[in-house]
Structures are given as C-alpha cells and as structure tokens.
Write a structure and sequence with these properties.
Helix content: 10-25%
Largest sheet: 8 strands, mixed
Protein name: nicotinamidase
Pfam families: Isochorismatase (PF00857)
Bound molecules: pyrazine-2-carboxylic acid, zinc ion
Distance between the termini: 32 Å
InterPro entries: Isochorismatase-like_dom, Isochorismatase-like_sf, Isochorismatase_Nicotinamidase
Structural class: alpha/beta
Organism: Thermaerobacter composti
Pathway: Cofactor biosynthesis; nicotinate biosynthesis; nicotinate from nicotinamide: step 1/1
Strand order of the largest sheet: 5-4-3-2-1-6-7-8
C-alpha cells in the first residue's frame, strides 16, 4: 500500500468496522481530517438542532489535535446560506432557516478547535449543497473563492484518504462521504464523531450503511 496503512487500525474490530486511533491515523502522510458542519444551528438550541449534535465536539477535538500536531491537513465545511435560500420553508424547502451567513447560528460551535481551512457551501440562494465538495474556499468574514474547490485543493496537497466526522450523518456527512468516494478518495467515517437528524427513525443508520456499501470504512464502533 503506497503511503502506508490507510486505516492504521488499532484494537478490536466491531460490527461497524475497525477501531481507528487518531494518533495512528495522523501518521498517514496522505490523510486529511474533514470536519463537517459543526455549527451552532446544528447543535442543541440551534435552528436545526441535531439530537446530541454537540456530542461530536470532544471526539473531533481529539482528532483535530492529533492531525494538527502531525502537520496534517484539517478541513472544515460550513453551511453558509443567504436569508432566502431555496432549502428554507418560506421557499418551499424542507428546513427552517439555518446557518445564515455571518450569524451566530452559522458560526462553529464555540468549543470546537478551529485550526485549518474552511470551505463554505450553500451560498447560492437557488441551489442546495449538502456536500463539502460543492463548497468553495472561505475568504474573509462572508465571502468565498469560487474557483478553489475542495477536491482539487485536497489533491494539490497530496491527500488520498479522508477521515470524516460532523453533522449531520444523513445529510451533509452522507453527501460529503459519497462525493469523496466518487472523487477517488479513500474515506473512513468516524462513527462516534457523527450524529443524525433522523427525520425518519433509522435515517442515520441507513446513511451509514449506504456509505459503507459504496466503499467507505466505518470506524470507531456502533453508531451512537
Ligand atoms: C445540513 C440540513 C440542511 C447538514 C445542512 O449539515 O447536514 N442538513 N443543511
Ligand atoms: Zn443547510
């Protein structure tokens, strides 16, 4: 395997897949950590709260710290909508207004370690964008650099493997993982570091099964 053991597996395999140690994964020179949408509006008290959404923060902070210490790439995606976004109910969409550009709801959870590069998505009022691969490099307080896309940016840095956690399992994590696989990256989903909206019970579990069926490795134990 060029570039070393992709999973750097440690411990006992579980039904959901192998256990992955953050420090071991951070030794993979072709690995990057992708932190999806850990924003106030997706946490308890937010406009589109994911049950126990803030539970991912301590788990991801451990991963972020390991990756930064090892000098690895850490990428954050940020849902970043204008006030009249097509996904909002006033425009016939499924969601209450959330993650409106520049608001506290769109900000990252205050306890999340933010040390890395931010890609924003959903900034086009007329287009939904669940996947981080639809994102653009963040620039300044509100803007984006539309010409810099996530897949090209990752490849440019020699990244071949993605370790993904964040919110929500059944929407933006799912879309980011499936696009990452389509783009040719090896993808490991950090199961203890994701939480689902579960509009219908089981959506999160089904999303994990779908990601696994398409080639993602589910790591870290059963879905919470
Ligand atoms: C998300 C619903 C709407 C997500 C974003 O981050 O999973 N879900 N916008
Ligand atoms: Zn959204």
């Amino acid at each position: 395997e060029p570039g070393g053991d992709p999973g750097a597996t440690v411990g006992t395999p579980t039904a959901a897949g192998a256990t992955v140690d953050p420090d071991a994964a951070a030794r993979d020179p072709e690995g990057a950590l992708v932190v999806v949408d850990v924003q106030n509006d997706f946490c308890p008290g937010g406009a589109l709260a994911v049950p126990q959404g803030d539970g991912v923060v301590p788990v991801l902070n451990r991963w972020i710290d390991a990756f930064r210490r090892a000098g690895r790439v850490v990428v954050y995606t940020q849902d970043w909508h204008p006030q009249d976004h097509v996904s909002f109910r006033q425009r016939g969409g499924p969601w209450p207004p959330h993650c409106i550009q520049g608001t506290r709801g769109a900000a990252f959870h205050p306890d999340l370690l933010v040390q890395g590069t931010v890609f924003r998505k959903g900034f086009d009022a007329d287009r939904e964008a669940y996947s981080g691969f639809d994102g653009a490099l963040a620039r300044g307080e509100t803007g984006v650099e539309p010409e810099v896309d996530l897949a090209g940016w990752l490849r440019q840095q020699g990244v071949r493997r993605l370790y993904v956690g964040g919110l929500a399992t059944d929407y933006c994590v799912r879309a980011t993982v499936l696009d990452g696989l389509r783009e040719g990256f090896q993808v490991t989903v950090l199961v203890p570091a994701v939480r689902a909206v579960d509009v219908s019970p089981g959506d999160g579990r089904r999303a994990l099964e779908e990601m696994q069926a398409r080639g993602a490795v589910l790591a870290g134990g059963e879905a919470p």
